[in-house]
């Protein structure tokens, strides 16, 4: 399978945009990586990268080649996973693209559960927004997407979808913590810190605020929910998060998060969005990926009750 080594080398060059960076990741010399790339281009009869002052980038032929390479690597991984499964030792790799809301609690717990039974399966997780998931699934850069969207139809195969309501997150001693459910107007009586506008939860809020007279700008915006939660724990400010990403929702809290609580927003004020689990259309998944997706689907069904496919 010497061609697979070449394929992995070219894939790394494409991902990093640099022969030197790819060489460092692969623990090879830049000249060795360059020779392997040059040998492939000579066999193919076409260059697949454009050389620039900042590195390299795929040309039109390279875009076709990299898709073929990633398809081949994915099929090889699926074959290896099936062979390993026959021997009773489950191996493989699961690459996931997910919303930030799943990173602190839900996914770490589910990965730990899976690896307790299948310790030879490895994982990689990349935080991304729903707009990037279809592209990365299509290019074999990730196996599964688990992302929140404000209900727009995804451009990939949806394995399941569950509704997600919005919750206000605040310090435990916040005046609004005494209520079981909050109206949006109540929240806007306090300082607001919010994720940037391209986040799905922020889109729900912006839609709910159309025509409202109590609207005011946030005092802080960030692309990190960890920063937002840390800030509200130290102040009287409020932020928002979908229910799967709030402290305590997944059966535990992180460092310092015992000082945080969440309260649901009245559904009359803010509609729910959807959490989607999806894969590339018509792609047979490796055994490990398929088994993990089944675990995720069961857990979400048990927790939220509603399944939409």
TrEMBL record:
Keywords from the UniProt entry: DNA-binding, Transcription, Transcription regulation
Gene3D superfamilies recorded: 3.40.190.290, Winged helix-like DNA-binding domain superfamily/Winged helix DNA-binding domain
InterPro entries with a match to the protein in the record: HTH-type_LysR_regulators, LysR_HTH_N, LysR_subst-bd, WH-like_DNA-bd_sf, WH_DNA-bd_sf
Cellular component terms (Gene Ontology): cytosol
PROSITE patterns on file: HTH_LYSR
Pfam family, one: LysR_substrate
Domain HTH lysR-type: 1-59
GO molecular function: DNA binding; DNA-binding transcription factor activity
Family: Belongs to the LysR transcriptional regulatory family.
Record-given protein name: HTH lysR-type domain-containing protein
Organism: Pseudooceanicola atlanticus
